[in-house]
Structure formats: C-alpha cells, structure tokens
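Q: Okay, next protein. This is Probable allantoicase from Peterkaempfera bronchialis. I've checked the sequence twice, so it should be correct. Can you predict the 3D structure?
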Amino acid sequence: MTTKDFTRLPDLASRSLAGSVVYANNELFAERENLIKPEPSVFSAEDFGHKGKVYDGWETRRRREPGHDYAIVRLGVPGVVHGVVIDTAWFKGNYPPYASVEATSAEGAPSPAELEQATWETIVEKTAIKGDTENPFEVADPRRWTHVRLTIYPDGGVARFRVHGRPVPDPRFLDGTIDLAALEHGGDVVDCSDTFYSSPVQLLLPGRARIMGDGWENARRRDGGNDHVTVRLAARGRVRRVEIDTSYFIGNAAGWASLRGADAEGSEPGEGAEWTELVPKTRLQPDTRHFLRPVSAAPVTHLRLDVFPDGGLARLRVHGELTADAHRAAVLRWLDLLPADHAVQVLSGAGVPPETADDLLRRRPFAAGGVLPPTVLAAFLGR
C-alpha cells in the first residue's frame, strides 16, 4: 500500500473519532492534545507566551540529559494500522531528528500507569525525519491495536500525528441495533460523485455535526444530474431506521434524497448491481434531522445515498442489526487480528483456561477454518 493509498483511510487517532493523547512525559512548550486535532496545524509569527513561541502542536523542552520523549495515544477506533504521518509543520529549528512508533492492544480503558506495563511492539523503527514536513511511514503489521506511542529522539516538536488504518471494532458490542454505516463500526465510503467542499466520510463520524463544514458538501450541479455517495456497511445487516441530517445546511441543503441497498458480500457493487429501494425519493428540509423507516428489511452490505440535485448533508445514520453470519464472521476476524497476549486475555475472560487458550491460538486463523469451540464463540456473540 502506497502513501497515497493509506492516507485515504480513516485517521484512527483523530479527536473526531474520540481519540485521546492519554499521556506525554513532557509538554512544557505545547500541549500533547494538539497532536490529534483533525484540522491542519496553523502558525502565527506574533503568538508568544510566557514560555516562548506558541506552536499548534506538541513540543517538549530541550533535553540536557540522555533520553527521549514520548506521547501515548488511545485510538478512537481500534484497528489495523496501514500507515502513520508524523507531521512537523512549522517546526523548523526545533523538530526531533528521529522518531519511532510502537503499538499495543489492551482491554477496556487502561490508565497511563497500566499502559507503561503493557507489551509494546514496534511498527515504525527509529527513523530520521524532516522538519516542517509531513513524514509518512507505511506499516505492514497486520494486527489490531488499541494504543500507539510516538517516541521522538531526543526532544522537539511535532504538529500532528495521523494513524491511518481500517477500523476493527470489538464484536462483543455489535449485537443488537447499531449504526451499520458508522465509521467506528467499520463503515466506509467507497464511491462519491463530488467532494468539492468536504469529504463524504464526515457523514459517518460519531456525534452531531458542529458546523456546516463538519458534513459533506458538493459543488452546485449545472448538468441536470444528481450527486451520490456509496457506503460499505460495517457488515451485512438489515436496516430498521434511517436518519438523514441536514443540520447547519440552510441555503445549501440537499433538496431531496433517496436510499438504496445492495447485497454484494465480498465485493463492491458494480455497474450491473441490483439495488433495492430502502427510502424512496423524499423531500428534505434545511437544518433538520429526518427520521425515516425503510420500505425493505432485506439484508444489504452497501448503501447508495442519492441527493437531488446536489447540496449538503451533515450525517447519515443507518440503524439495524448484523445478520447472524456477519456477526460470527466479525468475531472470528477480531480474534484472528488480536495480538497473542490480548487474545489470551479475552479467551480467558470467556472461561477458557490460559493453557487451553494458547492451544486455541495455534489454530488461527479461525476465519479460514481454524476450529473455535461453539461455547467459546457463543460467549462473544452475546447469544
């Protein structure tokens, strides 16, 4: 996967996905929380504080003793990391000359002290980086992580830290009714007619939009056509309720919208795909949350949202439940991607003795035929 490819994937560390910088050993000049702001870093030549120049990033003091500095980020959505970007924008004489990235996988919400005792695996070796530059690094490790640690040598400033990858949610929380399109559950945009003003991926972000720029807005159409977005759902499921939200779009909201679904397990729906109508063409109001009942409960893997003729939307919510087979597949994939120590921990929590858990893990991948006892599988399915 190239740099261009991996940066198209969601930033799993972003504050927009509820990521958090849970600890930094030093942040004397600039706060660690700046690392995961979704917007680009900004700079003002006049902005000075009591401690010196104020930077929109994370900056540590000058070291006068051996060592290095680091910050620990809890991913907003755990997943497989395909690449990271260590962005040193505006840091020219004070950037770190080297950096590395480590990752770990943990249950629940561990404290910084507990994370210090965790097993950390290197996913980006200590490497030279440049100042005032987006420094991209591909990651080949196929495992699922919950936390990453950015280490800089010996000190300095980093503006933004991006962790691009594919979400792998905990399937123990995918039972019942969920938002099948949500980015945090593994939903993704696979096609869009127009991204002139903003990305359609923002339709799938958690929470309410805060401003108009926090949604998807296309250019004004002059050709008699209409704009559209295709979403791959977290997994195959049945849609029970739809929300199309035009909040903050007042003079530029979409005028009408419709929603169709396709069952294209294992592939993207092509030109000849069969689409089932879920929500017929419906008039929308500006700055309004629209709640709609689908006219079909047929299982689908993809959705196509059409807006007429153009215009902005803040959020798309598609509430429903995974099919039993899709939920089972999500559990097996999750267990396959967990690092060994975390996998032993979750299997032990399901009542599997540690020595038996080690034996089970030698049978991975479960998704490709490795045998997982039905009683163990049932413990993760919540059934």
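A: Here is a summary of the prediction. The first strand starts at residue 20 and ends at 24. The helical segments are 3-6, 112-116, 324-337, 340-349, 354-361, 374-381.
Q: Noted. On to the next one.
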